[in-house]
C-alpha cells in the first residue's frame, strides 16, 4: 500500500511539472542548449568516474 502512495505522489509531482512547464516555460535558444550540453557531458563523465571508483573500492 505504501508503494502505491509513493507512486501516486511521484505521478502527481510529474504531472504538476508538465502542466507548469508547458504553461510558464519558454523554449531555449541554440546557444543556451549548446552551453548546457557541454556542462551535462562533463557532469555525466564525472558521475561515471565516481561510480567506477566507488564500485572498485
UniProtKB/TrEMBL annotation:
Keywords: Membrane, Transmembrane, Transmembrane helix
Spans through the membrane: 37-56
Protein name as catalogued: HIG1 domain-containing protein
Naturally occurring in which organism (per UniProt): Thalassotalea eurytherma
Amino acid at each position: 500500500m505504501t508503494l502505491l502512495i509513493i507512486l501516486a505522489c511521484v505521478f502527481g509531482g510529474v504531472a504538476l511539472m508538465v502542466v507548469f512547464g508547458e504553461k510558464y516555460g519558454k523554449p531555449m535558444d541554440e546557444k543556451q542548449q549548446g552551453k548546457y550540453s557541454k556542462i551535462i557531458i562533463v557532469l555525466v563523465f564525472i558521475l561515471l568516474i565516481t561510480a567506477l571508483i566507488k564500485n572498485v573500492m
